[in-house]
C-alpha cells in the first residue's frame, strides 16, 4: 500500500510499504530518511500517536493505517507534554500537537477527522502550492519602475535577461511599463493555472508526481544558477575564445586553431589552394568527417612541413570541402610532436624541440572571426547569385521553347545615385555591396542597410 509521510516542518515523503510491515521497521526506515533518532521518533495517525500494543500484532494494518493514509513524523523533543499535577499521575503520557502545522497536507478532512474531534484548520494553498514554491505577489504590489531600474543598473543581469527573454529585455531597455506589467500579469495567471491544476490532482497519481518532480528540478536549476551567479559570475557571463597560433605552411602564413578534441589535422580547400598543396591531395583518402556535424573529405595530403615558431614540423592534412577554419591542428600532430598547451603562460610548447609560440590575442581572434563571417557571407551571396542566374537562364529557355522566339532583352541596369551609395557605405559596407543592395531594394537606403546587416549576422 501507499502512505504519505509528513514531517512537522512540511517535508513530504511518499512510501510504498507492505500492509504487514511492523511499526518498528517503519520507524527505522523513517529514522534514516528524516535523520531523527529512532528512540526520539513519534508517529501520528488520525491525530493519535501510533504505539505498539503489548501481546498483539503491531503491523500497520492492525494499527489502523490504510492505503493512502497520512502519517506524521515528529521528534519527541519538539513535542510538548502537558504538565502533570500532584494528584494525577499516569504511566502513559499523552502528547499534544500544538507545534505541528497540518496546513501543508492537502487531503480530505474526513480522512483525518475522527468522530468527536474538532475540525482541522483549513488552508487556501494546499500541498501543491507549498511544494511548487508558488508565492506570487499580487499585481497591485508589483512596481514595474523598480523592476526596470534594477535591470538597467546591472549590465550582467540585463545581458542574462536578453538571452532568456529578448522581448521582456527589449521592454525593459525602452522603459515600456505597460509591457512589463502585462508580462508579470501573464506570469501570475500561469502560476495560478498550474496551482489549480495541481490541487485538482490526486497526490498519489503519476501526473501529480511528474509535475512535482519537474518543478523541483526547475527549482534546483534556478538555485544552481543563482549560486553560480553570486559566487562565480565569471562562469556565467564570461566568453571563452578559442586557441589560435600563427604558423606557416609552404611559407604561407596561416592562423591555425589548436583543437585537442580533433582526431585529425584539418585544412579547408581555400587554404590548401592558397598554400599550393592541392596538387598533393590524394583523392583515395576521400570520406566523411563526423563530429559536431558531417563534412566531406576530398582527400589527404600525406606530408607537408608546418613552421611553428622557428621549427619545422612534418604533418599530414585532411582537406575538407566545406570548413570555416583554415587549419585545425588536431591530436594526431599534437601527440606526434608531444605538444603542450600551457594556459598559464599562453603558449603552445613543442615537446620534441622545445620551441614555444604564443596564442593569438582576443583582438586577433575576433578579427579572424569577423573575416570568417564575411567570407561565409560572400559565399552565401555568391550561391544566391548563381541560383538566381540559373533560374533566369532556365526561365529564358522555357520562354523560348514555349513561344519559339528569343525572350525580350533585359532592361539596362538602374543608375544608383552617388549620395545613396555613400550613405550605405557609411554604415560599414563596400561599394559593391551598397550598389547591389540598393538595386535589390529599389533605391531605399534604410531597407538596403537593414538587408545587408541581416546578411552579415546570418548563421
From TrEMBL:
Residues 396-417 are annotated as: Disordered. PROSITE patterns: ASP_PROTEASE, UBA, UBIQUITIN_2. One of its GO terms (cellular component) is cytoplasm. GO terms for molecular function: aspartic-type endopeptidase activity. Residues 1-77 form the Ubiquitin-like domain. It is found in: Cytoplasm. Residues 415-455 form the UBA domain. Its main location: cytoplasm. Keywords: Aspartyl protease, Cytoplasm, Hydrolase, Protease, Protein transport, Transport. Pfam families: Asp_protease, Ddi2_HDD, UBA, ubiquitin. GO terms for biological process: protein transport; proteolysis. InterPro entries: Aspartic_peptidase_AS, Ddi1/2_HDD, DDI1_N, Peptidase_aspartic_DDI1-type, Peptidase_aspartic_dom_sf, UBA, UBA-like_sf, Ubiquitin-like_dom. Residues 406-415 have a biased composition (Pro residues). Belongs to the DDI1 family. This is UBA domain-containing protein.
